[in-house]
Write a structure and sequence with these properties.
With 165 residues, the protein is mainly alpha-helical. It is built from 5 helices and 3 strands; from the N terminus they run αβαββααα. It has 2 domains: 66 residues, no CATH class; 97 residues, no CATH class. The protein has a 3-stranded antiparallel beta sheet. The N terminus is likely disordered. The chain binds zinc ion.
Length: 165
């Protein structure tokens, strides 16, 4: 992150959702009626009511402004995408690298909080696809392992039978 960005008092002036220059840096009581969290600072668009919270102790936004619709897509995208590394189909790092490659974005932009609505929808689609394929591979692997064990047991049984006679 360039230092100029950190020094800027209002890094988000134009709303990335409605393109209107109505973004203010404010306490999040503008959203929730009272301040919420240890660091209640946020950016808020007076026109379309999109918002984004800031990193603790700074005026650095955690991502892009989002309206309610985008926030719902973010939650869904996290649910779908996180399964990939939580189910250990890939490591967390590999999963983000895969997402960046799939969306055609540099790795540092492949964060759920920085994705556009279109990219969030794509993340949900490709993650679900990937998980169903990954699950298939795991089922196939398990089946193969079971067949191998079955064969071993059968061979053992046959050899015991042979020894008896
Ligand atoms: Zn706006």
């Amino acid at each position: 992150m360039p230092l100029s960005f950190l020094m800027n008092n209002q890094p988000l002036a134009i709303c990335n959702v409605c393109q209107f220059p109505a973004v203010i840096y404010a306490e999040n009581k503008v959203l929730y009626k009272r301040n919420v969290g240890d660091w209640p600072m946020c950016y808020y668009c007076k026109k379309c009511r999109s918002s984004v919270s800031c990193h603790y102790g700074t005026n650095i936004p955690k991502g892009l402004l989002a309206n309610r619709e985008v926030k719902v897509f973010r939650t869904l995208a996290h649910e779908a995408f996180d399964k990939i590394w939580m189910q250990r189909i890939m490591t967390r790092f590999e999963a983000y690298q895969w997402l960046a490659d799939t969306l055609g974005l540099p790795l540092e932009k492949a964060n759920i909080s920085q994705l556009s609505k279109e990219d969030l929808i794509r993340t949900i689609e490709v993650s679900n696809q990937f998980i169903s394929i990954g699950a298939l591979i795991m089922v196939r692997r398990r089946k193969k392992k079971e067949q191998k064990e079955e064969r071993k047991i059968k061979e053992l049984y046959e050899s015991i039978k042979r020894h008896k006679h």
